[in-house]
Design a protein that fits this description.
With 59 residues, the protein is an all-alpha fold. It is rod-shaped, with a radius of gyration of 21 Å.
Length: 59
């Protein structure tokens, strides 16, 4: 069966709300690098913030 006009509008509103939410939420990093070499590569690629104080060079 085809959805009723009201069901179609509700589905459109839900899809629009999800699109707005996805656009506004900050993207989460996929994973934290496990080694210093991976961390350096991630920093060079701009995946990690420059305020990371857990690196040996920041101590």
């Amino acid at each position: 069966m085809a959805p009723t006009p009201e069901e179609a509008r509700t589905a459109e509103k839900e899809a629009a709300a999800k699109a707005v939410t996805d656009a506004l939420e900050p993207k989460k990093p996929e994973k934290k690098p496990e080694t210093d070499q991976e961390r350096k590569a991630a920093e060079d690629a701009g995946q990690l913030g420059s305020d990371n104080t857990n690196t040996p060079s920041a101590r």
